[in-house]
Amino acid sequence: MTDLIEQTSPPEPMPDPEPAGGWTGALRRRIFETLPPEKLLPDTQPAYVASWIYVFGVLSLTAFLTVVGTGTVLALKGAAWWHVSGTGHFVNSLHLWSVELFMTFMSVHLIAKFFMAAWRGKRAMTWITGVLALGVSAFTALTGYLIQQNFDSQWIATQAKDGLNSIGVGAYFNTMDYGQMLIWHVALLPLVASVIVIWHILLVRRRGVVPPPALRGDASASGSASAPASASAQEVEA
Amino acid sequence: MTATPATPHLVFAPPVNLNGHGHYLHWGFVQISAANIVMIVLIGVAFLAALFVPFPKPKGRDGE
Is A16 left (phi over 0), alpha (psi -120 to 50) or beta? Predict the structure, then answer.
């Protein structure tokens, strides 16, 4: 009997062969440990997310994708396209108004997350990347206004160069240099903004959506507010 | 050169005339354009609405 048990017992667990996988294996393990698929693409969210105030993050992302899409078309057709084509004028208007909505949604998102203290639960970098996204977007919008090729862009360029000269960066960032502003707007800043936005979203996936803060001194806090608090604790452990 | 919009004016015309000088509000040393103050108010309204407008419940999940 003892022999039978010994023969049918499971073999000793093999050591994990993956540690010898080189840098690609180490990178793969790091990615899956940090962002397992169920975290990267969740199919459920905590109950407290069922509020309109939590919608403005994805609204911002949707507007951002529209900005990138219409901007890509404008870049393909050229900066002067919208001056000579009705279709170009329409696409340019889509680009403008999606930017307006993007900044509006981000502003509401920022106000909401500020009052939620959304940096709680090891979410400081999520908050920082969100603020960076807003700042880079504002800077990108400035360069966009500068390449309109009209009197408005000329006025903004002459006003902005005074401000930038006053802080000593005018020699490196010249708002009256159309070519420089065009490259910044269609290449450099969209790349930076996209990286920051993707980084922000991955951090949200990793740490989870921040729960609302518990009510101070609320007798029902153990029922209504402790659930978000415990959810936060679980997300921190993850 | 004035760009000529290809879309019909009557259908897509803005509710206010956007040609001409902008409108500004002055209050002491504070100066802000009417467009900016309108946007700030709209953002505030959107924020409050997001807090107080009930969020629709998904169908079939009332018992959860």
Answer: beta
